[in-house]
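RECORD TYPE: inverse folding
INPUT: structure tokens
STRUCTURE:
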């Protein structure tokens, strides 16, 4: 069984197509970077952010440290100390906020993953009630 390489003109056409494709991507990346690389529009909560690097770190993604640059501890809370404490612990453990909060789903998108939100907030409320009841029980001297 003899080896029959492809005709030389096939290689030339293939190289030409690859060069054209790479040139088109390079040109588009320079002139229209948002169309080539943006995964989608930001939500109304973050639509004021102009640069990707405000949230994204090259080769590492979204880091909690970048979120803290804009959000303070009060903003992480929904009014309960349990929620604030949860977010504080989550961030100090070096975990990414994008585990529960998503972006690039459009201007009107909800950024909190709803199933996780419901489960967490039920747990937070139960824990808060438990702590309050425990405190009241201890103060009553029973």
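DESIGNED SEQUENCE:
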């Amino acid at each position: 069984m003899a080896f029959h390489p492809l005709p030389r003109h096939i290689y030339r056409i293939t190289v030409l197509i690859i060069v054209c494709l790479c040139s088109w991507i390079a040109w588009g990346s320079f002139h229209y970077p948002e169309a080539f690389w943006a995964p989608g529009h930001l939500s109304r909560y973050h639509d004021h952010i102009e640069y990707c690097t405000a949230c994204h770190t090259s080769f590492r993604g979204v880091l909690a440290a970048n979120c803290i640059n804009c959000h303070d501890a009060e903003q992480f809370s929904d009014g309960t100390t349990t929620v604030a404490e949860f977010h504080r612990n989550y961030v100090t453990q070096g975990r990414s906020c994008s585990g529960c909060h998503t972006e690039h789903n459009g201007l009107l998108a909800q950024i909190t993953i709803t199933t996780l939100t419901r489960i967490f907030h039920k747990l937070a409320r139960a824990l808060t009630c438990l702590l309050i009841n425990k405190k009241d029980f201890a103060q009553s001297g029973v």
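NOTES: Helices lie at 8-31, 33-37, 64-70, 81-92, 114-140.
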